[in-house]
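We examine the record.

___
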Amino acid sequence: MKTTEIDLRDYVNGIASELTGKIEHQREVLLKFIEDCENDGRQIDYCPLIKCGPRQKYRAAVLDAIQVIEETRRSFKSRQLEDLRKRLENLVAEDAAGKL
């Protein structure tokens, strides 16, 4: 029984070529989607997809507010502050889960 050996370099080049083709296809699909959105007058909110500066500042501010509210609630035993803290914590959790 005769086996055919493939050169390792040819194998790596073949895989790289296949992956490059798939990436190029995905790029074309995404650019088409962006173009369609622009033509329809729709905006794409890509900030949740990346760690953009404004979203990081927002998250840090909300987490800081939660901490201050928790400390204040302990001092004043305020049910309203506890409820507000919980709502903000839920908002941060939804943001982390990509549900906003």
Summary: Residues 73 and 81 are 6 Å apart (CA to CA). The chain is about 75% helix and 0% strand.
